[in-house]
């Protein structure tokens, strides 16, 4: 397996996603994160394991198509993004809300 630089890995995971669907996935020990578009599955796995000190079993990624947006007669696009659904090992968990 390739060794990854821990400093580079921290930049790959942008933010956790807290939506109704993502919260329901947490019950199955799955967590959703916004990640850099260039990030690969092994890099995402290494980053989550390094940042949160957990064992990652599986990583699924989503890169939906860009949506068109219009302002008057000008057509543009919303920015491209990538999300990762990370499945953790049995007994591991990530605390997204420390005070709650």
From TrEMBL:
Single biological process term from Gene Ontology = translation
InterPro entries recorded for this chain? Nucleotide-bd_a/b_plait_sf, Ribosomal_uL23-like, Ribosomal_uL23/eL15/eS24_sf
Instruction: Offer an example of a GO molecular function term for this protein.
Output: structural constituent of ribosome
GO CC annotation: ribonucleoprotein complex; ribosome
Record flagged with keyword Metal-binding: no
- Superkingdom of the source species: Bacteria
Q: Does the keyword Ribosomal protein apply?
A: yes
What UniProt keywords are attached to this protein's entry? Ribonucleoprotein, Ribosomal protein, RNA-binding, rRNA-binding
Pfam short name (any one): Ribosomal_L23
The family note in this entry says: Belongs to the universal ribosomal protein uL23 family.
This chain's function reads:
One of the early assembly proteins it binds 23S rRNA. One of the proteins that surrounds the polypeptide exit tunnel on the outside of the ribosome. Forms the main docking site for trigger factor binding to the ribosome.
Subunit-level organization = Part of the 50S ribosomal subunit. Contacts protein L29, and trigger factor when it is bound to the ribosome.
* Name this polypeptide is given: Large ribosomal subunit protein uL23
């Amino acid at each position: 397996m390739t060794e990854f630089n821990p400093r580079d890995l921290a930049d790959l995971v942008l933010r956790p996603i807290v939506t109704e669907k993502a919260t329901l996935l947490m019950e199955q020990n799955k967590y959703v994160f916004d990640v850099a578009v260039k990030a690969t599955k092994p890099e995402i796995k290494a980053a989550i394991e390094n940042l949160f000190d957990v064992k990652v079993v599986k990583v699924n990624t989503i890169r939906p198509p860009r949506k068109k947006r219009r302002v008057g007669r000008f057509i543009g696009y919303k920015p491209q993004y990538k999300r990762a659904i990370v499945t953790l090992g049995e007994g591991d968990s990530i605390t997204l809300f420390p005070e709650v």
